[in-house]
Write a structure and sequence with these properties.
- The chain is of the alpha+beta class.
- The protein has 13 helices and 18 strands.
- The strands form four sheets. Strands 15-13-14-12-16-17-18 form a seven-stranded mixed sheet, sandwiched between helices. The protein has a six-stranded antiparallel sheet with strand order 1-11-2-3-5-6.
- A hairpin with a 6-residue loop joins strand 13 and strand 14.
Length: 471
């Protein structure tokens, strides 16, 4: 077949398809936005796709089955002359077998009064019946488009318990019947956090970081400690922030893929505004990675020493023995500038749900130590693009992704840290060039660190003020 003939066949097919679509009746959902939200909130993160509309396709069992058979889950909705809105949900696909189908999640509902009232199935084995000449058939309790007529069959004494006067006002005449397929929803309609994805935003964030000054005169840089599981991306996070201010991707801190920590020393990294620029007012402190095995990875007891400022740069960690005062590398009398002003947990977003129990216990122990010392804590979620296909496709969808928000909520629950203290980022790991959206998320995380550091300094100032008052 030559290319000309193939092109003509493709064009003819497209014309026929367009003609077919042009002659399809327009289906508008009769559910209000409020009613649809009420139904969806009962089912989780879902949206409704209209499959069958009786006033368009016909009040017949045949029309219903043609449009809805083999599709699931579904929500069926009836509207009667008196204005009542009611129906049912089933996870089972419809058919014309004549048999009952088991569904322990099926329920009837009414939307009268603006709220959804739910009537769960009382006999799961008889939840749904597959009848050819009827519409949605919920046991023997509720049938929409009964016997291919615009009427409802109602029998509350069978497999669902409900008050017919409340559900449909005892009005069995239908003005409409709609059936929707329930589809999993991957994104919110609007972002739950607002970000302006423009170059001006990156410039503003960078300027805010450059111009930051700790509110305590004796401190010139906020010190932020990064801790997390091996492979979560602590060192990569520093490299990524450093890259943004250098103007190109760099890799100063050792990072990579390994089952054991590539960082074996305590390192303090000062950021610079460009290669020859002045130091920025923040120091990122990197540590040995946490491991779930006993006696492996960073020792929890060393965390307190780091937070209090006792550990010097390049101290070599020993997982089998915590740091002691007599050991070389121990600062006996740390100043405020030596202490940690913000503790940041670095978590791999794709592994939050499978976090080992022993690792969770270590993180809880660390959190308690930090709380006792009054160190503010936050979480940075890395590898968000690996965790969510929607975000992998477009990083600007990060705060519209339902899955990412669930991960953030799960991290909040496991670590006992508020959702407002958790920010997602994507590190530079394979790229050769910078990306605007990646930079904005990274810089936003640094801004949060500086804000939390300010909280630490405010607490210190309050304590000093109280002491002076007592004196």
């Amino acid at each position: 077949m030559n290319n000309v003939l193939l092109c003509e066949l493709v064009n003819k097919r497209q014309r026929l398809l367009q003609q077919f679509l042009d002659h399809q009746p327009i289906m508008n959902s009769r559910l209000s936005r409020s009613q649809e939200r009420n139904i969806c909130s009962e089912l989780g993160s879902v949206k409704l796709k209209l499959l069958y509309k009786a006033t368009v396709h016909g009040f017949t069992g045949a029309a219903f089955h043609q449009r809805c058979d083999s599709l699931s889950p579904t929500v069926s909705v009836g509207y009667n002359v008196s204005g009542y809105v009611f129906g049912g949900y089933t996870k089972q696909p419809f058919s014309q077998s004549g048999q009952y189908v088991n569904d322990d999640q099926a329920f009837l509902f009414d939307l009268t009064g603006g709220k959804l009232k739910k009537y769960p199935v009382t006999s799961a084995a008889h939840a749904i019946r597959m009848i050819a000449n009827c519409g949605p058939y919920f046991g023997e309790s509720l049938v929409l488009v009964n016997a291919s007529q615009p009427v409802t069959h109602s029998n509350p004494k069978s497999y669902y318990n409900f008050n017919p006067a409340e559900m449909h006002g005892n009005d069995l005449n239908l003005t409409e019947c709609e059936v929707y397929q329930v589809e999993e929803c991957t994104e919110f309609e609007t972002p739950w956090r607002n970000v302006i994805w423009e170059s001006g935003t990156r410039t503003e964030l960078m300027e805010s970081i450059k111009n930051y000054k700790p509110p305590v005169r004796s401190v010139s840089q906020a010190r932020v400690l990064l801790i997390g599981q091996v492979g979560a991306g602590k060192s990569s996070f520093f490299n990524s922030i450093n890259s943004v201010f250098r103007g190109h991707v760099t890799s100063q801190a050792m990072s990579g893929s390994s089952t054991t920590s590539l960082t074996t020393q305590f390192r303090t990294y000062s950021l610079k505004d460009g290669r020859e620029g002045k130091p920025l007012p923040i120091t990122l402190c990197d540590t040995m990675g946490l491991e779930d095995g006993k006696g492996a990875g960073l020792d929890v007891d060393d965390i307190a020493s780091i937070l209090e400022g006792h550990i010097l740069d390049r101290y070599q960690f020993n997982p089998s023995a915590p740091l002691r005062a007599e050991v070389h590398g121990y600062r006996k009398s740390p100043d405020l500038k030596d202490k940690i002003h913000c503790l940041t947990y670095i978590l791999d977003a794709s592994k939050v749900s499978i976090m080992p129990a022993r690792l969770a216990e270590k993180l809880e122990a660390i959190r308690k130590k930090a709380n006792l010392l009054g160190v503010p804590q936050m979480v940075v979620l890395t590898k968000v693009d690996e965790a969510c296909p929607l975000v992998e496709e477009s990083l600007t969808s990060i705060y519209q992704s339902i899955y990412i928000k669930k991960i953030i909520q799960e991290a909040s629950s496991k670590l006992g840290i508020p959702v407002s203290c958790i920010v997602p980022v994507r590190n530079y790991t394979e790229e050769l060039d910078l990306d605007l959206n990646t930079d904005i998320l990274l810089l936003s995380a640094v801004i949060q660190m500086l804000r939390f550091a300010d909280n630490f300094f405010d607490d210190v100032s309050d304590q000093l003020g109280n002491l002076q008052t007592k004196e």
